[in-house]
Every structure is written in structure tokens, then in C-alpha cells.
């Protein structure tokens, strides 16, 4: 395992979310474009590939999520958050399956997806968004899967230090180019 991360779930989950939401967006765009436009057919193909690859990534993400669920150090409140995220993820995976099958059947039978298909995509999309939100809660609210949390320097620590960072970066760049 790579030492900077305790498990592989976060590596795959972002592909899953990105591909599936891109698919949904492209399917919506294809319904809006004129029927005879060649771009519509091309975008539909891209939408379907995003859906299929996104679902394959979702399966991989679920496997690594299961490993994470059983290996990440946690307490009782974070266990509850992690379990809720897991349950939503499995439900979302299940609800995407008929859509993926419908998509595969329609392409095999050369049927263009209808508005009903595209509108039905919004249902698993809402579950995917909720699952992602719960995963983010588990990480950012409960600290699950992080190897260490930063220690606050003081309660007045401000983040308006962009000028200082730019000066430091510029100074390091100048020193490096001058051979120092």
C-alpha cells in the first residue's frame, strides 16, 4: 500500500463520481440538441461510454470501499457515519444497474435513449450526490481515512497569507535560478 494513503478507495471514488455525472450531463445535452445534428450522436456515444466506465469504476470503488470500511481506524460516531455512507453507496450501486443495462440494451438495439431514460438518470444521480456528501462527511467531519490531522497553531490562525507565499515562492525561484 502506498504510505500516503491508508487505502485505495479515495483514488477510485473520484473517477466514479466524475464519469457518472459527466454521463448524466451528456445525456441531458443530447436530448436538447436537434435530432439531425451529428454532434448529438457523438455525445450520446460518449455519454454511454462514461456511464459504462463510470459503473465499472463504481464496482471497483465499492470493493475498495469495503476494504476501507473494514480497515480504517474509527470510533463509534465515525463508525455510524461510515456505515451510513456504505449503505447509501451500495444502494446507489444497485439503482444504477438497471440504467446501465437499459443503456446497453438500447445501444445494441440501436434505440436512442428517450427523455424518460434521461429523466430517470436523475434519480441515481441524486443518490450518487448524497453518497458523495456522506463520504465527504466521513472524511472531513470525522477524520476517517486520514493519517494525521494538522495541529492548530493558535485560534487566531489566518489563511490570508497569499502575499507571503507568493514572496517566498518568488524568492525560492530567484535563488534557484541564481544557483544558490
Characteristic key phrases:
180 residues; mainly alpha; 73% helix
Provide a count of the helices: 5
- Tell me the number of structural domains: 1
Percent helix, as a range, is: over 70%
Main beta sheet strand tally, sense and closure: none
- Give the strand content: under 5%
Gross morphology is elongated
How would you sum up this structure, described in words?
With 180 residues, the chain is an all-alpha fold. The chain has one domain. 73% of the residues lie in helices and 0% in strands. It has helices spanning 9-32, 38-69, 76-108, 115-141, 162-177. The longest helix has 33 residues, at 76-108. The protein is elongated and about 60 Å long. It starts with 8 loop residues before the first helix and ends with a helix. The mean pLDDT is 83.
Provide a quick synopsis of the model.
This protein has 180 residues and is an all-alpha fold. The chain is built from five helices and no strands.
Task: Summarize the SSE layout with pairings.
Layout: H1 9-32, H2 38-69, H3 76-108, H4 115-141, H5 162-177
Amino acid at each position: 500500500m502506498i504510505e500516503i494513503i491508508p487505502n485505495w478507495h479515495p483514488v477510485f471514488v473520484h473517477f466514479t463520481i466524475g464519469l457518472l455525472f459527466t454521463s448524466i450531463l451528456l445525456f441531458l445535452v443530447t436530448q436538447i440538441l436537434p435530432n439531425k445534428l451529428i454532434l448529438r450522436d457523438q455525445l450520446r456515444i460518449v455519454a454511454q461510454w462514461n456511464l459504462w466506465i463510470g459503473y465499472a469504476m463504481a464496482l471497483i470503488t465499492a470493493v475498495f470501499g469495503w476494504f476501507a470500511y473494514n480497515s480504517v481506524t474509527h470510533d463509534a460516531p465515525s463508525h455510524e457515519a461510515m456505515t451510513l455512507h456504505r449503505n447509501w453507496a451500495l444502494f446507489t450501486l444497485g439503482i444504477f444497474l438497471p440504467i446501465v443495462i437499459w443503456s446497453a440494451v438500447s445501444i445494441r438495439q440501436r434505440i436512442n435513449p428517450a427523455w424518460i431514460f434521461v429523466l430517470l438518470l436523475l434519480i441515481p444521480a441524486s443518490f450518487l450526490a448524497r453518497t458523495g456528501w456522506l463520504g465527504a462527511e466521513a472524511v472531513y467531519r470525522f477524520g476517517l481515512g486520514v493519517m494525521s490531522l494538522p495541529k492548530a497553531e493558535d485560534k487566531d490562525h489566518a489563511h490570508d497569507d497569499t502575499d507571503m507565499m507568493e514572496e517566498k515562492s518568488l524568492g525560492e525561484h530567484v535563488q534557484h535560478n541564481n544557483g544558490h
